[in-house]
Amino acid sequence: MALQLIIGNKNYSSWSMRPWVLMTQLGIPFLEKKLRFDFSEGSAYREEVARYTDSGLVPVLMDDGLAVWDSLAIAEYLHELFPKAGVWPQEKAARARARCLAAEMHSGFNALRSHCPMNIEASLPEAGAKVWDEQLGVRADLVRIETAWSQALKTHGGPFLFGSFGAADAMYAPVCMRLLTYALPVSETTRSYIQRLAASASVRAWMADALAEADFLDFEEPYRKQRPG
Asked: Are 127 and 178 in a shared domain?
């Protein structure tokens, strides 16, 4: 039975993006099931997600009745299923470092995630400038992210964080989307990495799907009243 990945709106769901681009980029076959976000009591979204996991959250990877939820857990499960696919680097030290960066993304950078929610379709440089001026936590998060990226790229030679595209890049792909949407100031090294990641086949495909949704969810939109046009 084929793997199935249950996800939310591609424009907004940063956690869904991570396993989707990882599996797509590495050529791991799966069936996609996308659910439109609606967190209201008794919504179709809540009822459908409950069929797969009690967590109430996406993404969820289904494998012959087994539900694996949480993006980082999904990455580890994929590594167990496909150890040579490139989810993590082959070399032990690089693999440990990649896991550290992925776990840091998983548990940290709350200021950036809170004040700059992923919104691929939007262009919000004015909101980004205001956030940059007022939220010191966002600045601190970005300093740490840029430092980690720069070190990884320098050590492993690029084009991605640990040479080839892997789980660490997938975990930070939504950060790249945020930096594009909000036009936060970054170094040339960071800008080049963002461009390479955005040009990768899987991220391009996700972005195209996000733009094609033409959906506007007001509870995901702290900076706009409606979608332009």
From this structure: yes
